[in-house]
Amino acid sequence: MRAAILFFALLEAVAAQSFWRNQVTFGGGWARQLNTPSYNAETATALEATYSYAVTPYIRLEAGVATALHPTPDVCGSFGCYQVDDRFLWAPFGVRFALPLWRRRLELSAGGGGLYEKYSVGNDTPFGFQSVDGWGGYFVGGAAVALDRRHRWWLGASPRWVLANPAEGRHDRWFLIPLEIGWRF
After folding, report:
1. 39 by DSSP, 3-state: which?
2. What band does 132 get if pLDDT is binned at 50, 70 and 90?
3. Beta pairing partners, 140
4. From residue 73, how far is each of 86, 120, 141, 145, 172 by CA, in Å?
5. Are strands 22-33 and 172-184 parallel, antiparallel or unpaired?
6. For residue 45, how far is the Cα from the chain centroid?
7. Quick one: which of 31, 13, 35, 33 has its CA closest to 22?
8. Please, what are the domains in the chain?
């Protein structure tokens, strides 16, 4: 019984907030590798999910997961072509600063933090691709617009620069441009 009373008291406290503290965002878009020549750069489909908690109306703590699916094109050799079943997985965590504009219906944001990167290869490859992981950081900027009167649903974009240094002297630099839909509660 005490747990139920505590649950409903917390539920009422959430409803009594002066601004929305929690936000869940899902997005999808495009990712491009930056540290290679333009004729050899890898591109991929990017998907992401983020949770953020507003400490104040202008400062949010965020954590999430983003991925680039199948960034390596077909690798061809003397025995034919081979599809590398690979993906990047990033887990960013950091802070984002928000600037509400135009009656709080438009919001600009910028931030950054650390991230964990995991590059994985799904099948054995004769060309030397192997799974690696490591740590790094990211920078993000964004713009979003409220879709409803209560400012619960948001549509926007948050370009993200990923800088990671996994093992063996590798330097991964990626630029992600996702289109996002967010829900605040």
Report:
1. helix
2. confident
3. 111, 160
4. 10, 15, 29, 36, 17
5. antiparallel
6. 13
7. 13
8. 19-184 (2.40.160.20)
SS3 (DSSP) at 6: helix
| Predicted confidence band of residue 126 (pLDDT cuts 50, 70, 90) | low
10-14, 51-55, 58-62, 92-96: least confidently modelled range:
10-14
- Distance between CA atoms of 33 and 177, rounded to whole angstroms? 12
Locate 53 and state its tokens.
């908690």
Sign of CA dihedral 157, 158, 161, 164: negative
Pairing status of strand 75-77 against strand 43-56 = unpaired
Amino acid identity for residue 157 in this structure: A
| Closest to 27 in 3D by CA, of 139, 131, 147, 159 | 159
Question: Do 69 and 29 meet the contact criterion of CB atoms below 8 Å apart?
Answer: no
Could you say which DSSP state residue 151 is in? Answer: S
Q: Does residue 132 contact residue 170 with C-beta atoms inside 8 Å?
A: yes
Q: Are 184 and 20 in contact (CB under 8 A)?
A: yes
Q: What is the DSSP letter of 142?
A: E
Give the tokens for residue 90: 């990033």
Q: Tokens for 155? A: 């549509």
SS3 48: strand
- Bridge partners, residue 145, by sequence: 106, 155
CA distance 97 to 84: 38
